[in-house]
Amino acid sequence: xxxxxxxxxxxxxxxxxxxxxxxxxxxxxxxxxxxxxxxxxxxxxxxxxxxxxxxxxxxxxxxxxxxxxxxxxxxxxxxxxxxxxxxxxxxxxxxxxxxxxxxxxxxxxxxxxxxxxxxxxxxxxxxxxxxxxxxxxxxxxxxxxxxxxxxxxxxxxxxxxxxxxxxxxxxxxxxxxxxxxxxxxxxxxxxxxxxxxxxxxxxxxxxxxxxxxxxxxxxxxxxxxxxxxxxxxxxxxxxxxxxxxxxxxxxxxxxxxxxxxxxxxxxxxxxxxxxxxxxxxx
Length: 282
Fold this sequence. Notes:
about 280 residues; alpha/beta; Rossmann fold; six-stranded mixed beta sheet; about 25% strand; globular
């Protein structure tokens, strides 16, 4: 799917895009095994710098976890991967983010199309309370002006993929907000999957859930890995160790290190990483 904007205006109105500064050098080459990459990514909200030159690959079909203390830039980085941070006025971006080698901040790139390919699941489950469970699944498609040939079959398919179908198949007419917290989060994941994204961003998806619901979400992440490229922000280092193939440690807007999860947790290169994962700070 191309990232370029079409001549027909998008049905989703977004605020003006932030200032994006480019250097004159040619775009860096990317590894074909990487679905996305950031190159010297810097972000400011007003005068406050949130990211300080993040360069990091995101391998295709793998789960990448991002850990670090509160306020270190984890969520900002993830939101930059699908330009969701642009809803915040006064944002300024420098650097590049590529998707299949194409710069998502390039000229004529439609942010709505970027978000169709790079879906987002937020920290707090956010089903639309006035919509039924079925309509919540289809909401993203409808907002994008898409009309599936068989909406009922599509809704059933994605609800099965998030292991929610058997729990809701007899109550599809009920409000999405009538479900439990864990069910609501799986419903939001189903809504994202209905758009057929290639990358799924998950910003602390289990922070508001109980241990049983958290385990269900982690099982779902394992099931989706391989079919999707997944990036998950988490404060729970045990969760990062359980669900991810690679882990990145952020601190004060910087990427301290990025490695295979087993390596980062057992043989970190940087003393700051070891101090964090052993509980000396954070």
